[in-house]
Write a structure and sequence with these properties.
Elements (H helix, E strand, L loop, with lengths): L4 H10 L8 E3 L7 E2 L5 E11 L10 H18 L3 E11 L4 H18 L2 E9 L3 E11 L14 E4 L5 H9 L7 H12 L5 H6 L4 E7 L3 H12 L2 E5 L7 H4 L4 H10 L5 E6 L4 H11 L4 E7 L5 E5 L2 E2 L20
Parallel strand pairs: 4-5, 9-12
Antiparallel strand pairs: 1-2, 3-6, 4-6, 7-10, 7-11, 8-10, 9-11, 12-13
């Protein structure tokens, strides 16, 4: 059944998402009016998902609703911010009630969990494109940045890496894995978990942080460039899931962990004198990030070592880049 723009907004987004007390005016006016708490600063991030670039047409609408929000909350987490509000720009080839119901369900689930309110946006007709702008708040002067890493700092990642890349490779029939392992890694690809609580715990503790969206090497490279430092990674310390280690060789697992995107884990650095504080905070979270190396003084150089020896395999140093990679039709 065809639905007009305003009916679409009212039916699927106006009354279905959580409401916050700091939203003075939300959906239904020309703009949102929001209260930023005294002593806090606003953090704003935006991400776009485009069909046949970030997902194919087989991806479920519920997964897209979840992921469109999750990738933004992951950026907020990397800066230590508390998620508060989102706006949504949704471009659809046509109005599809079943798709919209599933999409808004996925959006609602993650917004409910992280107490985010949808406060505005736009709907248009065209190729399927989903843009979310997320807002968060952080105590004044406490936002974690990419710059700040120093030689001697310890390098951490929040969870196992590479599963999303393994799922994508399996979808493209580039690797054969069991159905159970495929289910597990597909969940990581389509329903990533933004590490919001960890990000907030890292305030005053982490010297730098970034979320891993384009691959560990690529995103760590942003920290190294901003901080003008280098890093040495102990490859045997990189956390890998059981699905990964039982599905591919060690070499291939490390390639996925180092270079494939869509993990949405945190990569961060902690100085030696903050490690005790860091461990204490983690004990209250029940979270176990893994130390995978250390920061060096060799600007922008990443050394890969396996059992103390240099790892000789050539690996790309950058992740996916728009306008450099050709588009693939699905």
């Amino acid at each position: 059944m065809a639905t007009g723009e305003f009916e679409l907004i009212d039916n699927y987004f106006t009354h279905r998402l959580p409401e916050r007390d700091d939203v003075i005016i939300g959906i239904g006016d020309d703009g949102a009016v929001l209260d930023v708490p005294a002593g806090f600063q606003l953090v704003v991030v935006t991400d776009t998902l485009v069909e046949n670039v970030h997902f194919d047409r087989q991806t479920s609408a519920r997964a897209l609703g979840h992921k469109a929000v999750a990738v933004n909350l992951s950026d907020l987490a990397a800066m230590g911010a508390e998620p508060t509000w989102i706006s949504l720009a949704l471009t659809l080839p046509h109005s599809d009630d079943e798709w919209l119901n599933s999409f808004s369900h996925g959006l609602r689930e993650i917004c409910d969990y992280f107490n985010c309110q949808l406060v505005g946006g736009d709907t248009t007709r065209g190729p399927l494109t989903i843009t979310v702008t997320a807002h968060g708040v952080v105590p004044k002067g406490k936002a974690i940045q990419r710059r700040g890493a120093k030689p001697g700092d310890w390098l951490y990642v929040s969870h196992s890496l590479g599963d999303a890349g393994l799922a994508l490779a399996s979808q493209k029939h580039q690797v054969n894995i069991s159905s159970e392992h495929f289910r597990q890694v597909s969940e990581r690809l389509h329903f990533p978990t933004p590490r919001v609580a960890l990000g907030q715990a890292l305030r005053d503790v982490a010297s730098s942080a970034i979320d891993i969206s384009d691959g560990l090497l690529a995103d760590l490279g942003h920290i190294l460039r901003a901080s003008q430092v280098g890093a040495v990674i102990s490859l045997e310390e990189i956390p890998l899931s059981l699905a990964m280690t039982e599905s591919v060789s060690q070499e291939q697992a490390l390639r996925y962990a180092l270079t494939s995107g869509d993990d949405y884990e945190l990569c961060f650095t902690v100085s030696e004198d903050q490690r005790g504080v860091f461990d204490t905070k983690l004990a209250t979270l029940g979270c176990k990030p893994v130390c995978i190396g250390r920061i060096t003084g060799q600007a922008e150089k990443i050394e890969l070592k396996l059992a103390g020896e240099p790892w000789q395999f050539e690996l790309p140093q950058t992740g996916y880049q728009h306008f450099r990679e050709p588009l693939e039709a699905s």
